[in-house]
């Protein structure tokens, strides 16, 4: 039987200067070295927004809430033999300083700068949509 799609949630954190946070996947993880939006896999039974609140806490040490996550766009792709459904939210409100805990590098970039980044294939349409949305 075909596997269920892998649902991944990610956030475009947007600061007061309309810069967007991106981070680099560390060695040892799939797609190491590529730049991504913070986020991760939705666990079984978990609501996507709750998963993203959890991932932002774990990866960036910030607190936000479901109401601060605006659904923005999505992308599909393949991760090995599994379909990927990547849900992107825009988040402009959170508590705390963004302190990456897992990434090997991180940057706050203007939306046009995202086009030059080496990102996973599924992220390319997300970047184009953010360019139009923000
Ligand atoms: N976080 C994130 N993942 C992305 C993006 N684009 C993209 O293709 N992915 C893929 C990479 C991974 O195969 C998957 C996310 O898995 P992950 O390994 O980051 O998730 P996780 O934090 O739950 O990690 P783990 O506990 O399984 O190690 O989605 C993106 O912009 N952000």
UniProtKB/TrEMBL annotation:
<keyword id="KW-0479">Metal-binding</keyword>
<dbReference type="InterPro" id="IPR000086">
    <property type="entry name" value="NUDIX_hydrolase_dom"/>
</dbReference>
<keyword id="KW-0234">DNA repair</keyword>
<keyword id="KW-0235">DNA replication</keyword>
<keyword id="KW-0227">DNA damage</keyword>
<dbReference type="InterPro" id="IPR015797">
    <property type="entry name" value="NUDIX_hydrolase-like_dom_sf"/>
</dbReference>
<feature type="domain" description="Nudix hydrolase">
    <location>
        <begin position="3"/>
        <end position="131"/>
    </location>
</feature>
<comment type="similarity">
    <text>Belongs to the Nudix hydrolase family.</text>
</comment>
<dbReference type="InterPro" id="IPR020476">
    <property type="entry name" value="Nudix_hydrolase"/>
</dbReference>
<protein>
    <recommendedName>
        <fullName>8-oxo-dGTP diphosphatase</fullName>
        <ecNumber>3.6.1.55</ecNumber>
    </recommendedName>
</protein>
<dbReference type="GO" id="GO:0035539">
    <property type="term" value="F:8-oxo-7,8-dihydrodeoxyguanosine triphosphate pyrophosphatase activity"/>
</dbReference>
<keyword id="KW-0378">Hydrolase</keyword>
<keyword id="KW-0460">Magnesium</keyword>
<dbReference type="Pfam" id="PF00293">
    <property type="entry name" value="NUDIX"/>
</dbReference>
<keyword id="KW-0515">Mutator protein</keyword>
<dbReference type="InterPro" id="IPR047127">
    <property type="entry name" value="MutT-like"/>
</dbReference>
């Amino acid at each position: 039987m075909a596997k269920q799609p892998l649902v991944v949630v990610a956030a475009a954190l947007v600061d007061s200067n309309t810069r967007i946070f991106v981070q680099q996947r560390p060695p040892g993880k799939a797609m190491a070295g590529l730049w991504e939006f913070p986020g991760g896999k939705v666990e079984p039974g978990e609501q996507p927004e709750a998963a993203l609140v959890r991932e932002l806490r774990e990866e960036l040490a910030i607190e936000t809430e479901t109401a601060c996550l605006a659904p923005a766009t999505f992308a599909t792709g393949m991760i090995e033999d599994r379909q990927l459904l990547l849900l992107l939210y825009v988040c402009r409100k959170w508590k705390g300083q963004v302190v990456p805990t897992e990434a090997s590098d991180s940057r706050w970039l203007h939306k046009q700068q995202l086009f030059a980044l080496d990102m996973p294939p599924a992220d390319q349409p997300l970047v184009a949509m953010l360019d139009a949305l923000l």
